[in-house]
Amino acid sequence: MIASEELAEERDAMDGFRGPLAVALPAEWITLIAQPEDALPLPPASDSSVWDAVDETTLAAIAAVADAERGTPWPQPLASAAARVHRDGDRVAWEQPAFARTHRLTRAAVMVATTREGAARGDAWIDEVVDGIVLLCEQSSWCWPAHDDTWERHGSVLATVTDPFLDLGAGEVVAQLAWIDQLLGAELDARYPGVRSRMRHEARTRVFAPFRARRDWHWIGLDGDVHNWNPWIHGNVLVAALRLLDEPGDAAVRAEVIELAVGGLDRYVAALPDDGAIDEGYEYWWNGACRALEALDVLAHATAGRVSLGAAVPALRATVAFPHRMHLGAGWYLNLADGQARPVEHKPWHALFRAAIRAGDDDARRHALAQRGAGTPLADASSGAGRTLLALADAQWRSAASATSPLPASVWLPSVEVLLARGRDGDAAGLALAVKGGHNGEHHNHNDVGSFVVASDGVPVLVDAGRPTYTKQTFGPGRYDIWTMQSAWHSVPMVDGAGQPAGARFHARLIEATDAGVTLDLAPAYATGALDALVRTARLDRATGHVEISDTWSASAPVEIVEHLIVAGDVEIVPAHLGGGARIRPLEGGSPVRLRWPAGITAALEVRTVDDPMLTAVWGDRLTRIRLDVGARDSFHLTVERDDMIAEDPA
Asked: What pTM does this model have?
């Protein structure tokens, strides 16, 4: 099963790229790939020693939903909903039923594997699985409409079935079919002969053929702009090729697709910084670096461990620590870019657990285990078929002892200029500070250079709002018309009434970073020519437990500076005769805090009503902006401290 010399020459001529994975790969590694039936790390449903031992809590949660939906109409993504992306920018109307369809199919597959209560019941679940499979095979496109280039290429608002676009959605579906084929191949053959051939036909037509034919996919990163689509799609294509390209005569194509997928992953890994940080933030780690780690884990299995690349690349080992380094406490995380500060969807903690074991990172392993509270399911169908099935089948994950999250006292990630500091290791109590430098051309960028977050007992008080529900506007020319993307709704200064523009040339200049603070010159992040320097120093004073933010500026002409502080919780301005500043009662779980700033600064509260579900799920129905007009000053100082008066008298 060796790729032809012609293929290798064509690939080298196409881009000539050779990254860290290529360097680490053994010679003729493609010959080590197992046969399709043995290539994926998932036992078939016939292995009762695995599937009879599935965690009862997790299975009960999946079964409750599966039982309720079986016999009801399947979710149906409609053409009119797909066209809305072009008409009013709405993505959700099509995506919600499409996602619900795949989640239902995953739950049904779990039920087949875990049902041992009579042939009739088992057959009914196989019927449910095949209904879902055929609905996917008959769905006009697996591509999410917001991603399709059919309008640009064909002038169509609906998918062009003769020219399928390979995106995240198509990758997810083809991998789901591969995992289900691995799990239930024998059962499908017994009850529905021919359905597996249909799955393979659709995989060839919608994924393998365009993947091979078009090498200009933006997500490959040939232009050097590599983001989370790369490992997400390449990893899913790899899974699908390993399992579904199993017919006579497929060997050469299978080798070609596998080589192209691993070569594509190499571009992502080459762009991953040494500290393992993700400029898209914690939320996108799961569908970026984590996807790369999962794909390489599959490759290691497919080669019986003889190709184990994750351990060979320092950046991959480092990125395993990123989730716990961004952890503020309980369910809260530092949310850079488009992430949520409190993720509401299930995260595939099993994937982190596996990656941590392979990397030998015990802190990351502990963090993954710490998320499994009493009665918490170990997997959820919303994570995708592969992640769900692998978590259910992993006895090590199922039986691992509980642990506590490491909560490191200090984190500094130089590649993205992000600092997180708390009072001491392993304890979310008290105040924690997070500060972001970087630039305004990052992936999923917000114009937020120099912004900071303060958490009280792990709960964000001075916050980054995150992002609302995605629409066509989110990634279009009107992105920065969205309020959550603007400087004005981040805790950064406004200069002469303007925030920071978008683009990598608008950046911070790092002056100093310590284990408790950072000093940045923010002047390069603004377009005004009069500003010579705008130096922000943000630090956690571990002796007092206070957070101190100091801004100083100089300019060749007078400039007007307005400071903004974005707050979650109940806020009140404290009158000058009571010491001035503001008091904040945070969201549930955080101790009250007191803000203090110099006397004579005019302060105003501006309440923003929040009604988007992506935001209300985190912050409730409002966020508040404190507007501080610093007048003719050339400096500003903010102290954040625990408010003992409120803490002692919560009434």
From this structure: 0.95
